[in-house]
Design goal:
single chain; mainly alpha; Arc Repressor Mutant, subunit A; 74% helix
Length: 180
Amino acid sequence: MTAAQTSTEESLASALWAARLWGTAEALREAISVPLRSFERAINEWGIAKVRSQLGEEAFATAWAEGRTMTPAGVSLLSPDSAAQERDVETVGASRADTPSKLAQSASTVTSLPNSPAGLTGREVEVLRLLAMGLTNAQIAERLVISLLTVKAHVRSIYSKLDIASRSAATRYAIEHKLV
């Protein structure tokens, strides 16, 4: 591998991580109702435009969406130094023509949680696990650093996707599917 290839891969890894970080940050800002200040928005827009052009629109959107479902700790595990990020870089660097579909496949292995049934998002699985551990909505909100309204929305979505109507049914489902 040449120095130029290594530099390009490191640059793509950083771009993927940045897109995920922005997605995570956006979800957190929405959850606590804290918009960007005008000077922060200008800096963000400049960086986002640069990363979007580097990755391409579809790959950028995929990474951003992944970030929106991740916790800050989860996205930090995908720093450019991690092996998971290297798999994404190989996917992005392989061919720009089919990057979006390959990135989506690769990204799903990075961010999907084991035993994530019924189309639950990563965040919904986190909420379901905490719910099954007996935490209240307020405790879940505090643990995940999200608003109480966001927890309630996740719980409604979980109930809908699993076709259940109670915390005890959700707990039973989590246990049966080895989520706790």
